[in-house]
Specification:
There is one protein chain. By secondary structure, the protein is mainly alpha-helical. The chain has one domain: Up-down Bundle (AhpD-like), CATH 1.20.1290. InterPro entries: AhpD (IPR004674), AhpD-like (IPR029032), AhpD_core (IPR004675), CMD-like (IPR003779). Its EC number is 1.11.1.28.
């Protein structure tokens, strides 16, 4: 499914979502790799097959095979980390934070693409997954690397828009089924 097909499937009650989706490709503040890596990683993170497929199709035309795999890796590794570190953060027993995670995360240290791009994708996926501990960690790396606040905000805006597309499709499916 293409991104245009995805936009056409967004119902009229979610017109703002459709318009926001249209704005993603027009963004000029991000590099092509940052932009399309965000689109793919966030699409996968929505766990909506239609959204993920449309984001994959959009990214495939713009990213190298290595960058495609890195965006997929960001979504995958954050799926694991966000569950674990959200638990560590929210659990009343703070002893969990002193224990080794014992989770393989080598891709974070060697993602195959610019570290800042991978961190940006990881931050956006962490926002979708609601892990405050991971959001803080990735934002710190990005700020320490000199990334402007507006760029970090743009990544989270991409995440919000792509997540809202998944919710709009699901709401439309429920309305049709009723």
């Amino acid at each position: 499914m293409s991104f245009d097909t995805l936009k056409s499937k967004i119902p009229d009650f979610a017109k703002d979502v459709r318009l926001n989706l249209s704005s993603l490709a027009q963004d000029e503040t991000l590099s092509e790799q940052q932009k399309y890596g965000l689109i793919l990683a966030c699409g996968i993170a929505t766990r909506n097959a239609e959204v993920a497929a449309a984001c994959e199709a959009e990214a495939k035309a713009k990213l190298s095979p290595v960058a495609l795999d890195a965006a997929r890796a960001a979504a995958s590794i954050m799926a694991m980390n966000n569950v674990y570190y959200r638990f560590v953060h929210l659990a009343s027993n703070k002893e969990y934070g002193t224990l080794p995670a014992k989770l393989r995360m080598n891709v974070i240290g060697n993602p195959g693409v610019d570290k800042v791009d991978f961190e940006l994708w990881s931050l956006a996926v962490s926002a979708i997954n609601g892990c405050g501990m991971c959001i803080d960690a990735h934002e710190k790396v990005l700020k320490d690397a000199g990334l402007p606040t507006a760029t970090v905000q743009t990544a989270v805006r991409f995440a919000a828009i792509i997540q809202s597309a998944a919710v709009a499709l699901e709401a439309a499916a429920l309305a049709t089924a009723a």
